[in-house]
Amino acid sequence: MTPSHGKYGLRGRAAIVTGATRGIGRAVARALADAGAHVCVSARDPDDVRRTAAELDGVGLAGSVVDPGHAEELTGLCLREFGRLDVLVNNAATNRPYGPLMDADPALWREAFAVNVEAPLRLVQCAWRGWMREHGGTVVNICTEGAAHTGPGVGAYGTSKAALLHLTQQLAGELGPGVRVNSVSPGLVRTEMARFVWEPGERETAAGLPLARIGEPEDVARAVLWLASDAAEWITGADLLVDGGTRVRRARVPP
Ligand SMILES: NC(=O)c1ccc[n+]([C@@H]2O[C@H](COP(=O)([O-])OP(=O)(O)OC[C@H]3O[C@@H](n4cnc5c(N)ncnc54)[C@H](OP(=O)(O)O)[C@@H]3O)[C@@H](O)[C@H]2O)c1
């Protein structure tokens, strides 16, 4: 990212990014910071949060998004430090429980919904009450390309992300015109969460994609940055696929 991202109109604004210490969330926080925004990051590991906040010249709070107090503390921190809260990126997620739904532990199933659906809603509520209702703002929820179809072992993840997609649209309807709410749905991206998928099969997956490679966190970050910016001022309730052509791969003629 370069200082030319000042063109996005984010200079001086404040952004919260959850799950921002590695992978996609970290790339998003970096892109927002490079675009001139003040960033407030969160994740569970306190050392990682401290390091990331320092690297981005921002602030951070360690904790889990499922903790009911975390959303209030995080939005409170952002408002206290920066005096505003313009952008909220709900990125933290879990892909557990992994496996057939007939074996799914009810407690872990609920945890998936607590992390992937309930926590984003709670954060939007806090952002709305603390700042966005009065001053406006924008929310980007990180969903997944996989939410549109089924797959082995990913029932809890896919179902909860499909719920997040619907939540995005519902909130977009409820919170306009002041607040825009959109989602970005990544395909397979080179991160820790997806390592078990890309590490054993990267070449094969890449060969099947129209754009011939798996995603990098920065591919997703650029899409989030754009949706969060004024360049997307007439876009709400949308889902932006960033998947290298995963949805259209069946039309690919092998080289
Ligand atoms: N990678 C892919 O291929 C892919 C594809 C589609 C969608 N996505 C979505 O992209 C988003 C980011 O995934 P990623 O692949 O970048 O994951 P990742 O590399 O595993 O990073 C996850 C981040 O979230 C934090 N986190 C995890 N659970 C948390 C919790 N309960 N509370 C607060 N922070 C938490 C982690 O830090 P701590 O462990 O310290 O908490 C870390 O900073 C997720 O929403 C995921 O569903 C990813």
TrEMBL record:
Matches recorded under InterPro entries: NAD(P)-bd_dom_sf (IPR036291), SDR_fam (IPR002347)
UniProtKB keywords: Oxidoreductase
Any GO MF annotation of the entry: oxidoreductase activity
Keyword Oxidoreductase in annotation: yes
Gene3D superfamilies: NAD(P)-binding Rossmann-like Domain
Oxidoreductase among keywords: yes
Membrane-spanning ranges: none
Family statement drawn from the similarity comment of this UniProt entry: Belongs to the short-chain dehydrogenases/reductases (SDR) family.
Protein's recorded name: 3-ketoacyl-ACP reductase
